[in-house]
Specification:
two-stranded antiparallel ribbon; 16 strands; single chain; 10-stranded antiparallel sheet; alpha+beta; 375 residues; Membrane-bound Lytic Murein Transglycosylase D, Chain A; 3 domains; Glucose Permease (Domain IIA)
Length: 375
């Protein structure tokens, strides 16, 4: 049932009940609160505790009250200052090298800033040149214990300079009392031929033209045929140097020398002597025979005297012969490298036992192989 009083009508019963409930609620709350307060006051209170805790500072703790943004600002200022310093330092063409800045590190930094790279400097100093004075020779007398390498080291020049300046054919055969010409700078002499010019000679040896002109104190660039021109910093051809040092050929086989070059008793005819134009190496049958130098197989065959043989032709007018072979693995016209296997030791032909007959020829004439072989 819906209660819908009339407008302006007041129900006094309801009003009285509400007022009575409010009054009771207030009184009961006050009584309860008063009782609670009274009980709290009546409880015995413990004595107050005193705490004397000392404040300790952790090791390394930062206690400064300076704001963090101060340090950020300071770091930014320092970074800008460093950047500005290096920006001014590497201005390239506007930078002038100070006289007191001669350290290696500073020079390297300056070269890099100006586009001067190490590869350029190294390329221009590949040949050590001493052209502060004009080339000249001085005499030196060979003493006991001297060798080409020792003399070269004592005078701070290369062996090429001594060998070429004295036209030594065999650098091993120095004798006490021999007089050698020692150049005052490293390099080799060159004998001019018809049609030579200084630019042509410089290009041929790979030496700067100015170095040749300065070393020879050239006043007139006209060259006479047969004239001697000193080429500073130049070297001999590797073949010529090996020849002079007696290192042109390698040993063709691993074996002992059973007969040397020169006159000897004929092993087949009692009481007679014959000239042996080779060196014999005794070795078991089948031992590998190697090419003593780069060359081409120019001949191969069999004779009653030499048995099975091979002949190699090399540069510089040299030829080598390998005889009394058991077998050969190279054919005519074949190119071989120094050290390549070309045959095997045998006992064919006129032979007293397994060995290699090794001969060296220069322009068709036999020479002593041991004077041209590398030990």
């Amino acid at each position: 049932m819906n209660y819908n009083p009339r407008p302006g009508y007041v129900d006094f019963n309801i009003t009285q009940r509400v007022e009575r409930r409010q009054t009771t609620s207030k009184n009961s709350g006050s009584i309860k609160n008063a009782a609670v307060k009274e009980n709290v006051r009546a409880r015995p209170r413990p004595a107050a505790r005193k705490y004397n805790r000392k404040k300790t500072k952790r090791p390394g703790a930062f206690t400064s009250k300076i704001p963090t943004r101060f340090f950020i600002t300071l770091a930014s200022i320092l970074a800008v200052a460093v950047f500005a310093y290096y920006a001014l330092l590497f201005q390239g063409n506007d930078y002038v090298l100070r006289p007191d800045s001669d350290s290696g590190a500073f020079s390297e930094m300056y070269n890099y800033a100006n586009g001067i790279f190490p590869s350029v400097a190294e390329k221009s100093s590949e040949i050590p040149l001493a052209t502060s004075e004009t080339f000249s020779w001085q005499n030196y007398t060979v003493k006991n214990g001297d060798s080409v390498s020792k003399i070269a080291a004592d005078h701070s020049i290369s062996m090429d300079a001594i060998i070429a300046s004295n036209n030594l054919k065999n650098a091993r055969n120095l004798h006490i009392g021999d007089v050698l010409r020692i150049p005052n700078m490293d390099g080799v002499p060159y004998t001019a031929v018809k049609g030579d010019s200084y630019p042509k000679i410089a290009a041929s040896f790979g030496v700067p033209l100015e170095a040749i002109l300065d070393a020879n104190d050239v006043q007139d660039e006209k060259i006479e045929s047969g004239g001697i021109i000193f080429i500073p910093g130049a070297k001999m051809k590797s073949e010529d140097l090996q020849l002079a040092m007696g290192e042109l050929f390698i040993y063709p086989v691993n074996g002992r020398i059973s007969s040397g070059y020169g006159w000897r008793k004929d092993p087949f005819t009692s009481g007679s002597r014959r000239f042996h134009s080779a060196v014999d190496f005794a070795a078991p049958t089948g031992t590998p025979v190697k090419a003593a130098m780069d060359g081409v197989v120019s001949a191969s065959g069999f004779t009653a005297t030499f048995g099975r043989y091979l002949i190699l032709t090399h540069g510089g007018g040299y030829q080598t012969m390998y005889a009394h072979l058991n077998s050969s693995s190279a054919t005519e016209g074949q190119k071989v490298k120094q050290g390549d296997k070309i045959a095997e030791v045998g006992n064919t032909g006129r032979s007293t036992g397994p060995h290699l007959h090794f001969a060296v020829y220069k322009n068709g004439r036999a020479v002593n192989p041991l004077e041209h072989m590398k030990f």
